[in-house]
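Follow-up to my earlier ticket, as requested here are the two runs.
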Amino acid sequence: LESSAVLNLLREHFVSTWALVVDLKAIIANQTSDTIKDSQRAKQALDNYAFPVESMVQQIDGTVISKLNANDLLDTHSKAEEFLNM
């Protein structure tokens, strides 16, 4: 992150946010002609959600590029420990 080019790219093209499941459902339920794109993004996020916490990267149209569930992250850590203890 010391590169000014990378920092400019992040400033111009990246948004970091979070949402609760109840909020995503409300966005979908309250869709109007002005909020169709927001509703589509919320639906894609909800469709890709898994309990308890899902971290995901989405394109502007809502397409999920990558995701990681908190349980998978914990599982990865325990598998790494098992591997190191072999």
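Run two:
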Amino acid sequence: MSESATASRRGNRRRQIVQAAQELAIEHGLSGFTLDDLAERVGVSRRTLFNHVESKEAAVIGSIPVLDADHAAALRRPGDAPLLDDVVTVLCDVVGSEDESVAGWQRMHDVVERNLELLPRIKQHMQALAEEAATQLTARRGIDLPAAHAAVAVGAAVIELALRDCLSDPGIGTLAERCRTHLDAVRRVVCDPGIGTLAERCRTHLDAVRRVVCDPGTSAPATAAPGPPPP
């Protein structure tokens, strides 16, 4: 068997394990099933399980997004599109890289609803992912860390809105299409000089957002870093 075929088979097996673990966590709660139960559900041995996941918890949250080398390179390298477009494109791909079906996102949502004890670990992971993405963005000329944080925070909000759309109405369009719709809406709001109240209350953070949304070529430094993006 070729190396690529072996890798594909291994990836498929891991996805089966993660899906089965999530289904069991929804049905019985994280503490309500054992690794033996998981092995039986998948039809493999415990040894095979540990070849793919390090623990029961890791199996349940195994589909959390990861920023790989290609994603990092895309964030570091300026392209033809505005910076925020690149951020949303990368985050959209990251979210969809493990299981891009609506069923997969719904299953993960149900896992968290049923097992709130997983939230701290998931939140920690997502914050680390956002910080890594922001750090990669600072390799671009004129983008300091506060501006990078702003770009990632806005991008994460766009992804969250798009995911909500897809979960509430699976026929509404692809994740990428919904991301584009919400990104366009962000531009209409943020780039509107008549923003009014938001400008008065959030001037510091709004200026940082404007630089990355409306003028991707700017070199002006941001004045303050926004808080971490939502998980």
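The only thing I checked on run two: The domain at 65-231 is CATH 1.10.357 (Tetracycline Repressor; domain 2). Let me know what else you need.
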